[in-house]
Sequence to fold (734 residues):
Amino acid sequence: MTPTDRDRGRDLDALLEALTAVPGLSGHESDMADCLTEQLGPLVDSHWRDPMGNWLGRRAPRPAPAAGAAPAPRLLLSAHMDAIGFMVTAVEDGGFLRFTGLGGWDPRLLLAQPVTVLGARPLPGVVGSRPPHVLGPELSGKVLPPDELFIDVGLPEAEVRAAVRVGDVIAPRRPLQRLQGRRRAGRALDNRASLAALILAMDLLARREHQAEILLLATVQEEVGLRGARPGVWELVADAAVVLDVTFAVQTGVSDVPGSLGGGPLIGVGPNMHPVIERRLRQLAAAAELKHGREPLAGPSGTDAWAFQVAAAGLPTGLISVPIRYMHSPVETVDLADIERAGRLLAEFAAAFDAALVDDLVGELHGVTED
Amino acid sequence: MTPDSKPHADFRDLLEALCHVWGPSGHEDRVRALLLELIAPHVDETRVDALGNLIAVRHAAAGGAKGTGVEAPRIMVAAHMDEIGVVVTHVDQDGFLRFGPVGGILTGNLIGTRVTFEDGTVGVIGAEKRADQAKAPTLDELFIDVGADDAAAVTQRVGDMAAFHHRLDWSGGRPIAPNHDDRIGCVMLVAALRRFKPGPNTLVAVFSTQEEVGTRGAETAAYGVAPQLAIALDITGAGDTPKAPPLALKLGAGAAVKVKDGGMIASPALRRLMEERAQAAGIPYQLEVLTGGTTDARAMQTSRAGVPAGAISVPTRYGHSPSQVIDLADVQAGVDLLLALLEGDVSGLLGSGLTGSGMTGAG
Fold:
């Protein structure tokens, strides 16, 4: 028998490179959904897409419950699959492209970015502006406003007009960089780092027994306002959900956050997170001797968990976050060990998810506690 | 030349009728009554939901899609009835009214603007003396003068709303009105209902309420209608005036097919289908990437389990001002495009792995 990738364990570098190479921009995620079909398809019993373009999968309990047994508890594991990018707003004289952000960009980071314009064919381009010598005193040394920036793909105007139209999307062109040790930098680690963790978790779960039916949901359009999450769970019936996303890691100038690169995933705590799920995640992380932290989120978590919690009749939700530096930049930086730990923690939670925990989800809120 | 001999006479008549009806957000009754009268001969059924949305159904040809007996795809097309305005927050002892916004009021457009209350009272917006007259005033610095000498002479009360004074002018053949947003969408939807020939799809025309205060009517209408496809008809910006911000939209260059706006990304598959239909029928169109503002399509898109949604927009100069300018050639193109879409086969959009509840591909 030939050993498969999964028997050997996945090459996390190769997985992350594959996930970050797919544009998968907000509202245009079908390429990312295809990639997930390839990566997760063998690990689920069925998979499909909904009208928003969300990718969904289902894995039945292993082993199958006895005939006449109570219905299996249902656990939803979710991460958003869209990434921030840009969109063409105008093709101007000379073939220069004007553009707007797709999702939240830091305006300081636009100049001099290498990009790929996804026109009739992919066109490498650069974000250009006037040289500093001719900027004039008002703009010199300042963050340039959008009307000072354009994309140059290096083609004559007629060829640009033939290949690029208003509304075409643009991805940052940044292959994953291997920094020292297990640190990696690149675009879209928000949220491809989480998708990698989700895939690792399903690899682990596929080798174990689990009483729960596992539902997978990779959402669209999180970066433009949590747009995919609520429709995504509309037709799913789940007892609980765990969302994977990224959060801030300590870096120069950012010291008041609980996460750090290599410090393990963060378990969200606050009104958006169900206390029973939060507690169980911490217990499981401690029992498995997994480095982890606790992330207080006093209000909206800024993740799909915020939309899930109040979707339909309400969905108890937990949040696991992978710490990254330089959020929403083309050099988001992660430690591979944190992705592995997030994947292991998620697998532990999914394997242990049972009817008793589902009972606790309600019991806790009615004053029946168990710790 | 009589109006009837001018091009787009039907749009002119509908605009004349609809632009002069008072209807700030939440107060769409008069607009709804007129629309009901206009569409009644052309629809199979109508209803009004709890938020005041007027919902009209025009069924597909008998036999469903391609005579298979399968229920025909339901396409929801929304145009909003409400217009932006102001609401009285305080009446001072000298008889001046202070006010708040109803929808996206731009204070730079307000000084000297006339507004009309529900009872027909006309007021004019004035401003306090300001340190820097060159800067746009804040709402706090503005007031409405209704010609009263003191508070006792004021008939308006806190909570009363006013719309920009209704007036429709024509300049260079282009209509100027304070409420093209979105009476022109209503005009387009009425015109489409008049021309619609039952085919493979059921058309659910929704004249929605409270769009300007957050697409509130479309949200409940979409829940009730549960469409398989959704299209909004609304205005958008234009980038063809002196030193306009970069926006590749021109008056008279065709219907705007929305790619993205400040609130939503249109379904790429629906947008492509709109383009194909426009190209096949020789309908002029432009692609719209608007960086601010949104339409009812935003609310319809995330209704229930999600709905492929897009919009056909009318390029508009000076949106949300008392003098909005459009070109009827773009309106004509928009109606033609809408009908080309509604009367054709849309099943390709509902398939391609994007069906609601089906499952494909086993592991």
